Structures are given as C-alpha cells and as structure tokens.
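Write out a record, fold above all:
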Amino acid sequence: MENLLSFFEDTPEPFWIVDQSYRLIYGNKSFFVTSQNTYGKQLQAGGNVLDLLPPASEHYQLWKESYDRAFQFKQFSFETNRKDQFFKNRMKFEFRLIEILSKFVCVRGILLDENTGTFQFSTLNKDHTEFTLSIDEDGNILRIAPAVLNILGYFTEWMENKSVIDFLHPDEKDLLRDFFRNNESLDATWCRLRDVNGNYIWCNIQMAAFGKMNVDRKYVISINEVRIQKTPANAYVPDTNILQVITEAQAIYIQNGKSKPAFDICLKYFQDESIVPFAFIASLEWKGTSPFLKIIAHYGKWINAGEHKIKGLLDRLSLQCQVIQKSINQNEPNELHNGILVRFEEMVFMMYLLIDGNEITGVMVTSDLIPEKMDAKVIPVINYFKPLLVSVFHGSRFLKNANAALHKLALNKDELQSLVTSLDDIILEVNAQCELVNLWSNDDALLSMPKELMKGKRLLEIKGELLGKILEDGVNDVLANETPKLIEYMDPLGNVHNWYNAKMNLVKMFSGEKRVSILIRDITEKKEAEQLIAENFKKEKELNEMKSRMITSVSHEFRTPLATIVSSTELLEMQIEKESRSLSEKTKDSFANIYEEVDRLSDMMRNFLVMGRFEENQMPFKPKLTDIVSLVRKIIRTRFLSKFGEEKVILRIKNEPVAVNIDPSLFWHILSNLVANAIKYSPPQSTVIVELQFLEEEFILEVRDKGIGIPETDLINIFKTFYRAGNSDEHSGYGLGLAIVERFVSMHHGLIEVKSTVGSGSTFIIHFKYNL
C-alpha cells in the first residue's frame, strides 16, 4: 500500500483515505495544506476527519453524507459552489470505495479554477478567448484556436489537416475513437496533449458532435483547463480499479503469507483487462554462480506456442538475468525499470525485472506483445504492479528465512534444554535492577528458597544483605563495563559452608534491554583440593628451606676439615721431603691425589653453599662497571693455569673491549663453572677456548671445548638442579654447576645458548646486555 500511496504524496490535488468511522487513514501533502488553508485547523493521521468542520454546520452535514453515500454506492462526487465560504476556488471531489480487509473511501479533489501551474481559462474567457479544436469524423484538425496553439507551441499551418489522435498520449487515444463510435456527448474528462517539445500536458476537455453521421459530422473539443503538475504527464496515473486490485493482492498476502495467491490476482487482472493473453511470474534463484528461474504463478494461455517450450524460455531468460545482474554489480548503466524485449523461437515476450535493492529477485514475463503495435498502456499498468510484486518477493524471502531461523532456533532450544538439563549448576538471569527474571536449576535443594518465590525478587532479598550486595555489585560492574566477571564466595546454605563461584556475562536482548546471566557452580571440592595443595606446598617449602639450611650448614662445617687436611698434607709433604731429601714418584702421586680430591670437594662445597644461598634468596646482586677482560684473565690464571698449564685455556678477544656492568662475584661463578666443566669432560691434551666478543648493544661470552658432548635429549634439562647427562657417569659431579650458571645469567637478564654434538664437543654462548 505504501508503494501505491507514494504516487499521490506530491501531487497538487488533495487526496485522502478515510474508514467508516471517518478516521483519517492517509492524507497527502496537498490535503494537509488545503485543510489548513480552508478550515484553519490541523488534523493528524488517525483523527476524525469531520473534526475539521464546525459541528452542526451545512459543511459538516455535506461531508458526512458524501462519505456515507460513497460507502453505500461505492462511488460518489460533488462540486463546490463558487460562493462557498470555505472555498476560494471551485473544486470537484471524487469518492471511490475500496473494500478489502476493511472499507475505505479514497477522496480525490480536483481543482477546477485557480491553482499553481494551472491556466485560468475562466479569466481568459472574459476576454472572449477561445480554447477549442474542431475535427472531422476521422479526427483530422479542421480549425484550432490561437490560444491552444500558444499553449502547445505549434504553428497553425503545420497542425491543420493533422489528426488530433497523433497529439494525444497513447493511453488516451481510445478516448476519441470511442466517442466517434458511440456518437454521444463526452463529459468533461482528463487527457494529455503533446506539446512541440514532446512533453505531455494534462488538459480537462469536453467534446460535442454536430451534423449527421457519415455526412457532415464534425466535433468540437473545448479545453476547460490546462494543468502543469509535478508528476510527469507521461507517467501513468492509476485508476481505482488498479488500486483495488493491488490492495486486494496485498491483503491476501498479508492474510496467508503465501505469494502465489497474490500473484494470481494481479495476473488475472491483466487477462481480464485484455492487457496480455498470457503472463507468468518467476523467482530468480542461484546454484553457485548459475541462475535459474522458477515459475510461481501464471495465467492465460500461450499463443502460437506450446507449454513444452517453457523450459527453453526460462533458460534463455535466466542467462539474460545473469548478464543484467553482472552489470548491476559493476555499476554499469542499464535500463531496468521498463520491459525488456525478448524474442524466442519467432515469438515475442516482454520481461519485467523485479529488483530488490541491487538484486534481481524475480521476473514477470508476458507473451505475444509486439512493441511496435501493442497498446502503450500495457507498460505503465504492468510497471505499476512491480513495487507490490517486489515487496511480496521480499516478504516471501523474509518468511522463508524467518521459518529457517525459527527451525534453527527450535533446534538450538532443544540443544540448550538438553545442555541445561545435564548441568548440576544454577543459572540465574537478572535485569538491570538486579531482579531475577529467569532461573534454571536441576536440584532445588541448592536454592535459597522455592523457585516461584525467587522470581521478581532482588538478589539482596534472595541472598541476604552481605552476600546479596557482593553479587549485585558484580552485576552492576558487568552492566557498566560490558565485560565478564567471576566472583567466589562462601554460602552458609543449610548450615553447611560451601564454596561457590558466580560467572557473570552480559546478555543483550533483542529489544535492546541489557541483562546479566549468572552461572553458579559448587566449587567446594575444588577449594578443599586447593587448600590441601597449599598445605602440601607449604610443607614442601619448609622442607626445602630446611634442606637448604642443612646443606649450607654442612658445607660450612666441611670447609674447616678440608682446610685442615690441606694444611696437614702440606706439612707432611714438607717433612717427608726434608727427611728423605726427595719424594718418590709414588709419594708425589699420593699427595697429588689428595690435593685433587680436596679441590673437588672444595668446588662441590662452594657450589652447595652458592645454591643454598640462592634458594634462600640471600644471594646479593651487586652489578658495577667492570673491566671484564681483566676479570676473565684473572679467573683463568688463578683457577686453571696454575693447575693445568698455560695452554689449557686460551682467551680470545673480538672487537674493541669496553667496561661492562656486571656483578664480578657472580660472573666468577659463571665462568669458573663453564670452564671447569669443559676441562672435566674433555681429553687431557685438548684446549678450552674462552672468547669475549664486544658488539654494539651487548657482549658475548663463549666457552668451547672438544669433549664428549651432550646428547640432544638431555639439552633441555642440563640447567636443572642435580641433573646430569646420560653420558657423564664416568665423571664425578652433582649437577650443580650449570644450574648455578643459568640462575646467575638470569640475574643479569642475560640469555644462554648451548650447541653440542656427542663426541665432538660443546659450546656455551651467553649474551649480556650493557644496560641491565
């Protein structure tokens, strides 16, 4: 209906629709302006149209009787008197009844005198100006008044002996032909005359006949009014029959939601009015990129063709729709609103596209129409139905999608119901006022009160002042920030103090309302397990601390005996050498073994002490600007060269050295452990390479050996405390050295890499930043 009424919105004539209660259903712009100017009152849609008039006045009675007569006789009209106090211009009002879902009367007001864009002939006639045409029985112009020529812009010589039918709009050509056949006086009616520029102008004419038939018969056409209006004169103006059919089709579709009955009503009208002998409506669907047309409704019979050919026609039309749709997608200019001529096996069809937005949703096809000969009235009549057909297609698609969505929703509902049934949890849904809207629970024993009493209550009322406030604060936080929230709380339900968590999520309803869903889960077992784990962790921590203290204490205790052993061994060695003046090789080896084992035990005790202090968080980190090259040389000289010789450890420097920010004490342990391991796991005659490389943002310490290497499977574990590689059993050790290295490198925010090949050796690469 909206598509239909949009035609009348900007027309200069007032147009409005009322129901049997005189309620205003629709009024165009001109109606509201005219009502305001005439009666000085405003009326809103839905108001009583008689409220515009003074009660008990003649005008009130006139309009009320006019509406009533229109409802009774389906059609009625009256003209206003020139002396009417409410009308400055003479008007004619036409009432037409539309009877579908409910009864409506459409009222169309025609201005007979003064109007913007209208030539006022009543004034001109005072000057005896003629607005007439004289024609013969064949329609040839015999005489034309100069005033008419001025309006149309033609020359007299050119128009005379021309047929007046050539100057009429195609829709009105039968107007004169019918008059010639019927030989009766023609009442005032509206038609369109073409001016010299090819534009059509609306004229209100009256025609009379003089003389005997087939002898001296002549006709005089008097032009009562010429109107130039906003709506193009060559646009088709729908009559009440079309309005009735479209409204009926739309009503049928609204009633049952099916497109075919609505389409059938439209197509039947085409056949009953002899517009086309056969027509069908088909929806355009797609399989991938291939279109195909599916007939939904058809009416009439084909002429000169059988229905067996319809498949070939549909295939042809489908391909043409594909080409047009492609041009639409590419924004190419294309005439889409008029009929498209299609020739198929010596037949002529017209295809009218039904377009929703930028998508072809279907077509209407009519047969046996030859554009050169067909009545031009066909195209505007058919086009006028297109908005309705498109809206029905759109509605059908919407209903189809809606049904699919409802089916999917039903499945989702079943799945959700099944899921909720299987849950042992409680689900609450609350509104912005923290009032309980919905509740799901499979165990009512978990609820604070019966379900029927909980709905509509606030969480404060359900859970009490303390716990209710915690939950409501969480709900308000979710509503304000639109982010999920998790709250853990203890609920003394039935004097049993159980732990629960409430997971809150925002829910946006279709209406725009915001709600919060609360999933409440019993986490008592989880809390008890967490408490047990925490207690075990505490005990384990205490045991580790006791172990660390014991190791530290034992290590300290070992240092004194070891020092005594060393000093006593040195005195013994000096005494034997003094008495015997020399030591035998066997004695020298014995003393060397004692010193070596004491060194090994000292290193071990030193590592135990360092690791113990680290685990007790008593290892200080005191970085300072250090000459790293001098520090490295000192460590190599004091720890290794005196014992293993000058060639055992070789230092290499790359790039210009710079002072670096490190903890010298911790770096001593890092380098000492790496070099000690390299010597331990390498052949006696091999050399360990220590390399310092100074780069722009970091310096790199690299220790390379040619020892036994580390298996690939052990590489990820070598920095763990007390871990030893699988191929290191022949060498003594406790797996502390690399663990200390990794921890001290981390304290410097450094990065350590290991490259190793079994049987070829290992390389430890440590990256130190200049700025810690």
In short: The chain has 19 helices and 28 strands. The chain has a mean pLDDT of 78. The first helix runs from residue 2 to 5.
